[in-house]
Design brief:
CATH superfamily: Bira Bifunctional Protein, Domain 2
Radius of gyration: 17 Å
Shape: globular
Distance between the termini: 6 Å
Number of helices: 6
Number of strands: 9
Oligomer: single chain
Order of helices and strands: HEHEEHEHEHEEEEH
Number of domains: 1
């Protein structure tokens, strides 16, 4: 059985071998974002990088970020105790590309880590993509070889991420784990999806647009990748 420490180390080591800089978790109270009470995602400490307002010595990073979601846009407080998958405090494993690799590599890395490094059965993994993102769907189906039965196209509410009302945004692709028929719940995109059978473990966000105040989307000059995977959810799968 792999411990949480084992999983954390495997994740950091995997992406370090892929040329990612290991960056320490930022404080729970963010120093660079007055709009947040607590750090709620791994990308918070990289916000200026995604906006093109800062440069660093690396364009690939990997972190294990301590997060609290107890208010604001990402508020899990009302779900704690009612589901088997929500906490207020958790660790988010994340790999990031700042104008370097994009969809293809992000998907390949995620799939290899889950199915090779962690040896999860591919048939237990279900995929969602944004309904209009044909490129991502094609990579999953024709390059990775995911069974079309296990891929769903989902609308903007769940599969299009934005930093705010304006600014960087883009489609995302989520990876779910099927805990088996003895657990209630249906596949993502179905009326029964709120059960605990199919649990989202990893979200791959592809920042490729800049949203203007009037809602117009313009391509970003340097598309980036922001991913997040719950350490505790992954531990529940592996243990």
């Amino acid at each position: 059985m792999k411990s949480s420490s084992d999983i954390r180390k495997l994740f950091l080591d995997y992406f370090q071998e892929k040329g990612h800089e290991v960056v320490s978790s930022s404080p729970l109270v963010p120093a660079n974002d007055p709009t947040l009470l607590f750090t709620n995602a791994g990308m918070v400490q990289f916000k200026e990088l995604f906006l093109g307002q800062e440069t660093r010595s690396y364009n690939r990073a990997v972190t294990t970020q301590r997060c609290v979601r107890a208010g604001g846009k990402h508020n899990d407080l009302e779900n704690v105790g009612y589901t088997a998958r929500h906490h207020t405090f958790f660790e988010m494993l994340g790999n990031f590309s700042f104008g370097d690799y994009f969809k293809r590599e992000a998907i390949q890395y995620a799939w290899e880590f889950l199915t090779v490094t962690l040896a999860l059965p591919p048939e237990k993994l279900w995929i969602t993509v944004f309904e209009d993102d044909d490129e991502t769907a094609d990579i999953w189906l024709n390059e990775i070889g995911v069974d079309p039965i296990r891929l769903s196209r989902i609308g903007a509410k769940d599969n299009f991420w934005s930093m705010g009302d304006t600014g960087p945004c883009g489609p995302c692709s989520e990876i779910f784990y099927d805990h088996g028929e003895n657990v209630a719940g249906g596949p993502p995109g179905t009326p029964e999806e709120d059960g605990d059978r199919y649990i989202e473990i990893w979200n791959l966000v592809f920042m490729q647009f800049d949203r203007a105040a009037d809602g117009t989307l313009s391509p970003l000059p340097s598309p980036s990748v922001d991913t997040g995977m719950g350490l505790e959810r992954l531990a529940a799968v592996l243990q």
